[in-house]
Amino acid sequence: RTSFYEQYGVICDVVQNHLTEILTFVAMETPANISDSEEIHRNKMKVYASLERLEKRSAVTGQYQAYNSE
């Protein structure tokens, strides 16, 4: 089962998306109405707006050496 996800790089996308969701939910202000999806969206966008932009020189990217050899 995991070979499918690894083959298409899904795990990287899923992990990144889930971590981003966790970041916004932990950092955002609690909405007055937790059922109001628009208010939740606005509060999440405030979190995104407050983040510092990542500079290319301070980012490190990499890939496992044998990632595509299987």
Structure described in brief:
This protein is mostly helical and 70 residues long. Helices cover 56% and strands 0% of the residues. The chain contains 3 helices and no strands.
Could you please describe the fold and organization of this structure?
By secondary structure, the protein is an all-alpha fold. The protein is built from 3 helices and no strands. Helix 2 crosses helix 3.
SSE class: mainly alpha
Mean pLDDT: 84
Main sheet specs: none
Poorly predicted ranges? none
β-strand amount:
under 5%
Pattern of helices and strands: HHH
Number of continuous helical runs: 3
Number of strands: 0
Compute the gyration radius: what is it?
17 Å
Q: What labels describe this entry?
A:
3 helices; 70 residues; mainly alpha
How do the helices and strands line up, and which of them pair or pack?
Elements: H1 2-8, H2 10-27, H3 37-50
